[in-house]
Amino acid sequence: MFRTLVALAALSSALACPDHTPPSSALGRRADENADEHPAEATWTFADQAAWAVDNPICSTGTMQSPINLSGAFSKVYAPTFKYDNLAIGTLSNWGYGPSYSLNGTADAPTFTTNGTTYYLLGFHTHTPSDHTINGKSAPAELHLVHGDASGAAKGVLGFPLVVGAEESEFFAQILGPTGAPNVTSNLLLDNHEMDMRKALTDSGNFKKYWTYRGSLTTPPCTEGKRWWVSGQSLTVSQEQMAELLLISEDSARDVQKIQAHGVGEL
Question: Model-level pTM?
Fold first, then answer.
């Protein structure tokens, strides 16, 4: 696998949560640490989520804000049919809170289709602890696979709660380890990093059980109109993998939002 280390500034759209095409203000913790040099970039933190609405009112006034608590029967609508056979090729980095990956483009990207619409994989990133809660309980971490249309505009996200299990995750084995994602203070990128995205599905029961709803980005600008699918079966990682993931992550979970016009499990 050919990989090149490049400077963080060379990548214009790799860091995101969960859009994978954010402005520089979405760099979160890294931007805040550079506030003295670039005060306009220090706009939000996870520690002061109430302040998000100052620049982005929808963060507090929206009716389809994510994440939410999920419970009850699994959804039966918008069932995804996956075409994840193609290897993903993109850039692996750390968005300041944990591993992040952005594909080089949508031309040969893994996809899934539902209700006649095709969603192209744009990238993925992690949150610790989980954004969503299930039956009122959070998981140690959550994986977000961000998908969009062919132009690269984010349209939907697959969420996977991460828990510790007996077996090592083949998916996370691709991004952890000595040559894997850097830590939260690193500006290094691993370019042309290949990923077999099918492993995320096989590590979590092939997405047979899920909830789906109308939601939003889980960080500013909190844009609504994003379709969410959250796996009803957690993706399991080994104890060693979870420890390593937490070592290169920082707390990045948004508070659970009130369920309003989300239409959980509805068309």
Answer: 0.89
